[in-house]
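re: that chain from earlier
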Amino acid sequence: MNILQINSSARRLQDDQGSVSTRLANELTSGLQSAHPGATVTVRDFAVSPLPVLDEATLGALFTPAEARNAEQAARVALNDQLIAELFAADVVVIGVPMINFNVSAQLKNWIDAIARAGVTFQYGPTGPVGLVTGKKVYVVTSRGGIHRDQPTDQVVPYLRTVLAFLGMTDVDFIYAEGLNMGPEMADRGLAAARGQIAELLVA
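^ sequence. v structure.
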């Protein structure tokens, strides 16, 4: 089993402090490794190594034929190519997703913009788009300061369901850690609920 872990928080996790979504994603990945000895893990931590945005220069590089790209353009496209290769190589994708102003972080959006490439990870057919990243199991660990699950304020889950399915990833489980900024008791309850979900998914 090849596991790709995406940590999309702007905060690092150090000594069990900092990003809750990263902490829980680490716990889920460790559980998967225990259940599948010999599994390989690739980690992309965007708090440590942020991704560049999709800007005009990047678009210019992507639309320039490979043989005509300058060194800077070639390096920019090579980064996206590597991210896409990591995704295709993965059997399981674990994504740590903090809610930022009701949606995903800018860094997660940068990753999605990098991997969503027409003709590579999706294509348009006679009946519409077809996702080409298939056969993946995806776990999304989402942390929130308040309570947003199944509420209009939660733009994270609808967005990720849509974009992951667009790319071909439809087997997706969401793990929720909520109420983390609503006092110690609520935070402990939210973490316990998320860990309970993780434990259930690992034995499923």
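The mean pLDDT is 96.
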